[in-house]
Amino acid sequence: MSGKACLTCHLISTGNICPRCKTSTLSDDFSGLLIVLDPEGSGIAKALGIKEKGRYALKVR
Question: What's the whole-model pTM score?
């Protein structure tokens, strides 16, 4: 897995700033991968509070 995960929203991105929440608190120490294609129809996305498509880390350290 390449990229860094945001400590705030867990979105995985390749830049130094999270494109979703605009923070610079990113970590390359994360585990688990959740790919959300349909956030409104996904029970997991609803449970995690994810409202937008994307790649997310399940655990960020």
Answer: 0.89
